[in-house]
Design brief:
Blueprint: E1 3-11, H1 18-26, E2 32-34, E3 47-49, H2 69-85, E4 97-102, H3 108-120, H4 130-133, H5 138-147, E5 154-156, H6 162-175, E6 180-187, H7 192-199, E7 226-227, E8 229-236, E9 244-253, H8 258-269, E10 278-280, H9 287-301, E11 307-309, H10 321-336, E12 338-339, E13 354-355, E14 360-361, E15 366-373, E16 377-384
Parallel strand pairs: 3-7, 4-5, 4-6, 10-11, 10-15, 11-13
Antiparallel strand pairs: 1-8, 1-9, 2-3, 6-8, 9-16, 12-14, 15-16
Helix pairs in contact: 2-5, 6-10, 8-9
Length: about 375
Amino acid sequence: MTANISGIDIISPLGLSREEHWKAVLDGYSGLAPTRSFDSTTYDNPISGEVHTFTPEGLPRRLLPATDRMTQMSLVAAAGAFDDSEIDLGRLDPFDIGVLTASTAGGYAFGQKELQNLWSKGPKYVSTHQSYAWFYAVNTGQISIRHGSQGHSGVIVADDAGGLDAIAFAARRLRRGSKVVLTGAVDSTMCPWGRVAHASTGELSKSEDATTAYLPFDERANGWVNGEGGAHLVLQSTSDGRYGVIRGHGATIGEDRLSQAIRLALGRAELRPQDIDVVFADAAGTRAADQAEAEAIGEIFGRGSIPVTAPKAATGRMGCGTAALDVAMALLAIRDQTIPPTVNVEPDKSLGLNVCTTATRRRITNALVLARGIGGFNSALIVGA
């Protein structure tokens, strides 16, 4: 499987564009802080990775009351990715343009607001836009409408692993005839309803200190932090692939089958373990999940033999947007030959991982991105120069 990546845009707690985010990551900044989107003082999980400065610039005013914040961020990032690709969409047949995104929960904050209206005021106070604003496929639909896409489109739902699966599916669509596919994911569940849903897993960090709230591969690991944002990418069947290519993908179901997903990705990319230069880890931030991932990486590459990074330690886990953002950063790492750091972490040596805690210059030709989701979803995607 090969697909050329010609456009990228990012929205995250560290920046509202590709380069702003990337510079902040390499400089070692963290976007984690006490929650400001809602009053979290009554919750056990007060730290978040929020996109504080986002404004839906460039979107029609009529669209704003009809869409969730997540969809607005997705539309802005999609437009940025198309602009970055320099594709003249008007010269293409609309049926050659597809949109394939991932979603974990749809428009959570919009749904909470309308459910509150239902409970407190009655059915006639529920917005008609609720019928689609909460829906898993809303970002795909709104992007398609805005950019005139009429080609094969869809949405992948596989929790945090969905971001990788959507990109892989987009690459397959190019092989089946699509000329251009917008893919990736931007996600947000930054509201009380979303916080309660994540807290129910028992894996959300209860730390009140932003510097210790999310510490993957650290002895002090105590869970993960809820973030928002992600990345959109433009894949083309014919271009110079200036950011690189999608080389291979593997997906499995089962808590103990991450290593099998890695082997599938390597096989489909026709690469050996020694051909991979860096691993962007899933980095769940719980002792058990980190141990399981470290064992899978060690099984394939050998203990401590390959650089591993988890830049999401600076943003939190943003649903399916997390893995899409990791892919974007892996491509930027190849472009700049620099591995981004895992901030605030003191690596647990017993895990046998070579965790990069500072920005590291290194020759990078191929990068492996890993993602896991609740329910046993495992996904592995290889991007290359």
